[in-house]
Fold this protein.
Amino acid sequence: MVSQSVPQRPWRVALFATCLVDAFCPEVGEATVRLLRRLGLQVDFPQAQTCCGQPAFNAGFRHQARAVARRNLEILAGYDYVVVPSGSCTAMLRCFTPELFADTPALAAQAQALAARTYELSEFLVRVVGVERIEATFAGKVAYHASCHLLRELGVKEEPRRLLAQVQGLELVPMELAEQCCGFGGTFAVKYPTLSDAMLRKKLAALQRAGADTLVSCDSGCLLHLAGRLHRQGEGIRVLHLAQVLQPTTEGP
Amino acid sequence: MRLATEAFVTNAERALQDATLQQALTRLVNNFVPRRLEAMAALGNAEELRTRAREIKAEAIAHLDVYLEQFAARLQQLGGQVHWADDAAEARQIIASLAAQYGVKRVVKGKSMATEEIDLNAFLEQQGYEVLETDLGEYIIQLAGETPSHIIAPAIHKTRQQIAALFHDKLGVPYTEHIPEMTQIARRTLRQHFLQADMGITGVNFAIAETGSIVLVTNEGNGRLSSTLPRLHVAVMGMEKIIPRLADLPVMLKVLTNSATGQKISSYVTLITGPRRATDLDGPEALHVVILDNGRTRLLHEETREALYCLRCGACLNVCPIYQNVGGHAYGWVYPGPIGAVLTPMLVGLDRAAHLPRASTLCGACREACPVKIDLPRLLLHLRHDLVQTRRVSPVERLLFALWAWLMQHPTLYGWALRAAAWLQTPFARQGWLRRLPPPFAGWTQFRDFRAVATRPFRQRWQETLRHEGASGGETRHG
Amino acid sequence: MAEQSAFLARVRQALHRDHGAAPGVPRAAPSELHAAAAALQQQLAGQRDTLLARLQHEVQAAGGKAVRVASPAEATAYITRLAQDKGAKRVVRWPAALLETLEVDAALAHCGIDVRVAPLVSEADEATLAAQRQVWRQWLAEADLGLSGVDYAIAETGTLALTARPGQLRGVSLLPPVHVAVVEAAQVVPTLADCLLLLRAREPEVQQALTSCVSFITGPSRSGDIELTLTIGVHGPRRGARGAARHAGDEQRELTRRERRCWNTMRAGLAKSSIATPTTSPRKRSWSLPAPWGRPIPSTRTKRTPKPPPTEESSLRRRSVSSFAAGAMLPDLKLSYGKRGFDGGKECRFYAPIRPGDTITGVDRIAEVYEKTGRSGNMIFVVRESELTNQRGEKVAVIRQSLIRRD
């Protein structure tokens, strides 16, 4: 399991697990921790963390978002890196949190400092750790869904695909509309279910056309959304987070 | 134009059920999206051009008062007239009095979103003028008594069969579904009107402060005919159409046409500098430009200003997964799609269009497509914040977010809440999934199952096992 | 009606700016403009050939036609032939010096075509001008072909730039069904920015330089407003439209297309060769028409031609244009393209009636081969011309078919 070529790194890495992982897909968090440790990193999970504040921020409740985000400035300070297994929550920590504190210079500086150290998992592995080879095996035809914030806020496009390409036995199949929104959008999926579902159906139709047996993404929000529809339809397509493919866990999704 | 923004949800649901519309939207997406992508790629320096175009608009809008003043002065030097309209009603009045002053009977119109915005046609018709749209798409929807559903392809929602039937009914021509033939039918009718019209009304794509010129961009030539044949030319422009210099035009045109239709340039770009000169044998004897505010000063606020950079190319509509599913009419007013979701609430008021900024996943495809890089998701977020600030959200939502914020600031309680939820859901959960959620979350389970809260949330797993794995396991870690 | 000052004050207030704090528009000094324009002209002098090739390519890509000719006589012959082909009775034209040297009026008059030349109005009383405007409006509306020069032509986009100066009526390029513009090699510039620079360097005052109207024209009028299907000539002429409605298929496309032909005449004595590339020797084949033949095919193709008889005639057309020799679609052109080919449209011109019992001989040749980059990638256009003659050696028809091949 251990990748021999990876040297030990004297970094203290904080895992920001995100509330969705915490509550609904803890196995993604487990896979992330084990994966990072395997790469020679010391991983900590600051237990005072809860949420990045995005649900409130996106709904326009900036005051509430600020209250929640402010805690993260303290909780996540003192680490060399903050790694997040979600593009969307990374975008909140990196792009939107500094914006929330723009009018308070002291906090803005802290937010900027946090933003500079915060990475989404695949981005961290490729750009920071410089992972060249991941020893992992996975049997299946995998389609990759590029989540919106990861792709368009963070500009992370190729990293997840590059990592998937290193997995033995994994066949990465191209999917139409791979970069199109799945219709999740946080509270959008609850407030506008019909619209959300129309987008979701297009996505799943593309997935079916791609002939994949597994759908992989880097955001638990999208994954819960996609998996929820597949489960309702009784489809047998697996839905996994990238970390779960790179670091298979004992417990199934 | 009648405002139907409040009925967004009903409109959207109807649109989703409309098979013909869905077919038209698929055609739109398959056509416009790849065309733009290929055209932008072929430019080689698209990024540079978009940045430059944004800078030009940013400069123009930041000094809008100065450039508008300069534009007006330059145009007046040539005998062109400038009129200032605070709102739609004023703009309509100005145009109607011009028509009266010049003894106008017949009006032809080139394609213009600004005149849609001020609902000009109905007003002029009420006043007894014959008004004819001459852009083929606009002509079709005028005949049908409808409104545009796309900024640059107004009749995109109609099939050839519907148009064929419309022509047959309204123009008394033999039924034909042959598109070139239908085009000829429209052309025959319209050419007569062009020759008889006394007044041509057009929009304005760009107004150049330096030279007092207006620029019309069309593919059909409706703008060119409307601004050449009638003796009176009235151009209606939103005040944000200004660009500072003549030398800015090539950049702006390039990003506009490549984004709109994937063309290097449109068939007709007409640069009009004043009415015809004394020795010109054709062209209009008088040129009047109506500069329209109609709520735009509200957008000048720093947070929303970039919405005024918009060139009305329609690229954000084409890539928007919401627009792709519901089309333009669902948005309920003149400007659909992501830019409409920003402009409409700002121009008609948040009260009446509260759905529009909310009905988005903030996926960012629009920003990626925008020729002037308008950060549309951020503008939508700003409007959502405005909705909260002005208490235009439901009390239930307020309460939920207050509770949420409180819980998220108390990690221990949050941890207990997770366990409590896991325990409470047990009678309903089936193999880790919930089939029904109670209101206000029921929307999710209308189409999707919901993942049950993990019986052992991550924080518990960390506490119980993961933490120790790191400390005692045989894995490499730093010393 | 709002007052300008109040309107602008509100804008200023919303911008949180004080009056007068904005940068004015810096004006380039005339001497700078002239220097830049002169430098550009000098630079362009060495690129004429490339620019012409690009212009031609882009005009064609935009759906227009561009033909390079080596002499004024050739240009005149082309214009005359085109006017005849189009069945033009009335031609309106600019009084451009270049057009005068072509002596095209005489050539057209010789064919019975009425040519009206726009007057170079300098000063006249308003009554005379009003009368002239009335007359010209009528002529423009009735003209079958408009002949103009250009101020500049833009190679990058295949665009013609036409200013509205005395004699340069806007309507000449707008109202008649066919617009022909004659372009000199020295008028071709690379980009719109270059064009604007040269335009404004002409006059000290930019508003004078721009005239009342500069029309930038790229290809024919087009629309995609019905089901996003591209159609040409939405705002074309009344006559073309009337004729077109009675025609079907290929002929209609031919009739309704607003063609823009553009020449470069080499007045400076530079000889340019045509870029047409015949690559194979002509092939011959002949066949006899079946005896039970319907009505004769009309001898000329005018806009009033009734719909030609169906079946046999159209099958003849199809046969004659869909096989080259021995059933081959195309001879071996040694092109790297060509795994897939499809029909790029055809154009049929009839010169003499075809009657039952006639033996028709067809001679095919490759008239043109050129490359275009479309949405879906590179395409090679191969234009094959089939000349059909009857047993008396009279030319009865010429069919030009485009085949598009791509990889």
User: Anything to note?
Assistant: The longest strand of chain B covers residues 232-238.
